[in-house]
Amino acid sequence: ARHSGGLMLAAFVCRPVFFRLTHATRGFPGNASGAVGELRAIACANARAGAAGGNAAAAAGRFAQRSSGLLAPFRRHLRVVPPVAAAWKKTRTGGFVRVENITGNVTARSTGSGGGVPRGTGTSPSTRKQNQKPVRNVQAKVSKTEMGKRASVHSWETEKGLKTKGVGSRAYIQVLGLGVDVNDTSASVLLFTDTQRILFNVGEGFQRFAVENGINIRKLNRIVLTQVNSRTTGGLTGMLLTMADGATEHHDDEPTLVIHGPPRTERLMGAVDTLVGGRGVRTIVKSFPTADAGGGVPTVDDDCVRLVPIVVRPKAADDKKNVGPLGEAPSAKRLKSENDHAVDTKKRHVFSALSVPSHLAESVCYHGQLAGMPGKFDAAKADSLGVPRGAARGQLVRGLDVTLPDGRIIKSIDVVAPPRCGFRFFVIDLPTAAHLAAVSDPNSNAYKHLLGAKDIWNTETGDLAVVVHLAPGDVANSTEYTEWMETCPAFISETDGRATKPRHLMVHSIATGAVPVFRAAAAINARLHSIDELIFPDPRNSTLLDENTQKAILTNAQAVETQAKESEERNATGVGEKTRHAPVTLPGSNLLKFTLVPLERAGLDWSSVPKPLVASRVRDELSTSFGVTARTGGAPASGGDAASTASTLPSRDAVVRTLPSDTVSTLPSDTVSTSVGTSASALPSLLSSLNPGDLELAFLGTGSSMPAKYRNVSGIFLDSTLASRNGTVVMDCGEGSFGQLCRLYGLAGAKTRLRRLRLVWISHIHADHHVGLPTILVERRDAILEWRRLNGNADANANGNGTSEGHTENVPPLLVIGPAPLRRFLNAFSQVQPLDFEFVDCRQTTGEKWDERFDGVKATEGTSDADDGANANANALPDRFALDPRVVEAATALGLKRIVSVPVNHCAQSFALALESTPLVPGDETTTWKVVYSGDTRPCASLTAASKNATVLIHEATFEDDLHEDAVRKRHSTTSEAIQCGTDAGVYRTILTHFSQRYPKAPVFDDGNFGRTGFGEAENADEKKDGDAAKKDPETTTSRVGVAFDLMRVDFTSLPRLPTLNPKIRHLFPDPEQKFSENGGEDASREF
What we know:
The chain is an alpha/beta fold. The protein has 34 helices and 39 strands. 30% of the residues lie in helices and 17% in strands. The strands form nine sheets. It has an eight-stranded mixed sheet with strand order 9-8-7-6-5-4-25-26, with helices on one face. Strand 10 (300-301) and strand 11 (305-312) form a beta hairpin. The radius of gyration is 31 Å and the shape is elongated.
């Protein structure tokens, strides 16, 4: 490839077959691996031949012809079609464009996988035989999209495989109340039928929500977006990755997902493709115009449902601004490059000229109607008319008249009831008062299309059954919103001269009572609270007072629904005075259903709505299972808060009484206790200089790979409130990190801490460590602007970073340090929403760069902008990567001496982080602190050296010791290896995190076996050196170690008592290997 461009081109042609065969044969018996090797050999020979002849297409044809024999045994499983109907052609600009055969089969592009017919599409034997011939004189057309940019698919032909056969026997709309507890993301709405699953919005945490509620995301057909921003699409990337992994694991066909939304959806998918591309998920983007409120053209129109978008564009705050469908028109000063990205040369502040802030972006409401239902066959009447059973009745059902043997003609209408129209529904999303004003204006296009949406169908329309409102509580509870909802003609449904009452479901935390969404994790936190009330705070919205409020909301809603049904029955029978139309407003509780089919059972279904979670009752059940009775005491007044409620229950004392006697001696204390610890872990002088609340570590996620029922993916939050070094740091940021912040500190507390955020550090490019970053950046920006509006435009973030000239609303950019490939993802997402960040490559923050600065060595000024390669060597540190001055500024603001990225052994460009503070007491070096975070890694000397004498080492412990081979293969650490690293480095406290999701509640750890393996040493103690005896001594290991849980808060003054919690944790969770469904509800009983 280095010497022949033709060889490289031929490699691109053959790549799809390699990818599909390699992934599809995983786990197959027989000679699959040998077939892959032989195919590679054939491909190399043909590629070289094609390069010599200068004909890559011919080389591909020869490859297909010679490889057909090897593929034959696997064709039934793989369904691989040689890519002779498509190839790549070099363009004048040096890129590649796709060349498609006009006479060949129509193929849809698989996301980033290079083209070809998707798995599962299949062809007839004759077609396959024809396709295996070499390509000669192909009439071709060239697409307009170059390789590397997303090809938007707007043709309905690509969706032929998604055509359905009617609604089926069941259909309902269900509220998936993601975010209704802490307002961190947008809720979703599911339209379920027997033949389709359509999901409105997919906010952050949707994967985790699906796992907990038994939802199989692999059965989704369409995603429909009401907005294009992080709140409505934050869970899309993770969901696509899970769909791809699920298809590979279960040997399913390549999943196909159609994504509907306004034009910026294409830019969103461009950002998603930087992570999902090549993973085997076929996505089709169907965007609709924003002009004329969407034009009234359905975005979904099949024999199951018809869905019409109504685009609502808020009026610009400044009428002088030219706001178009993609936001404010970019000026020449802002638009500095051809790829829509601009960089402030003074501050290197990355922004996009085409990104749109949420309050200026369009939102979309949807008006839908299910397909009509055929009339019901009246068997009794058919019997009375003498219609014989069998074919005659089938003809009548199909609408055909039948002539009986006696000459009588039986018409279909005699025995079949008239067809019934399907119900209509609305999904309304008005995120701000400006959007509400736009749709309320009778002169606006949105208002006109909202009223006329049903008229464009030119068919009989059904009753309006339900309206789902996704507006936030501050908008939905306003007088203006209530008045609009009550008077809007679109929400009035007339049937036979009578007004029906559609149900209005209000999906926000005020209406629903903020019931915890992730109940399983909240129950775990409630149990852990019995061990230590400070380190494990009670879950939010789980007190007795919260329960009373939530029960009252649900009881009142059911009473309102009963009254509405009685009123409708009176109107239908004509008994009593007909009531005037009025909206029936109900809370859109999590998992609430509205049945649409069968029509006889249409209405609300409360059976799936979860009950309120009360933390004190969880502890009551815990003490009962331990055989401990609650101590007597009166209930707190008005339910009390979490702390007062817990004080009247057995909680810590009751549980501790059931522990072994040797673990009861050290109870958690609210103050620093110097009696805890051994000589090996003597109390650092630093801790005597700290007060509670000065320094805190919070764990936002402690699981690996993907979000799960009990543990979210990686995220660590460092909060410093010390004078002159006030600020926060995020270390890794998996999906749902912002929601975890809100559950830990509340929405207001989370926004306050985001305004003080000075640094985000990402360890490596794996999605479970950084997919939540765009949401953090967007929410930080919104928090700063909100604070300014409330406080007279003062500087809400004393970052010292200044502002970026020409950037909208002048938000100080946040420093993001990460691997080079991360920049591409952030740059792509910044075309959707402003992120306000400036990026620094981890290779510019290594220890060598800091040593050069401290030693006075003048480093060559440089930048990593030109190197974003995903396959770069993490240990290769070219001279051009100099210590970036922005890192020094951030370190100074945080009171840090160094912010060091340490290369580790995991994937390309993987790093650990070491934060070293300056002395809290000037001149006293014993008052410094050091926090080291390993990221994902195998044990390595560089991490041990960087952790030397650290105050806290946060080390991944993905696998238990018995799975050492898995740890080596996947380049992770076992529990003992993580502990051994801390022991060798002389760390004061080691906190284990990043546990495999096979341990849903607590990881496998054993005090007696800590340190039994480390750095690949033999398991047999006789084979160890005598010097290793200290490594096995529990006195020098378990007294240093803590285990992390989600939403765990470790104040530095609590570090001394952290190891004493381990026996109590093990007692709470005696069966850490208890399994649960991780495949999105594959084994669950739910029907979705």
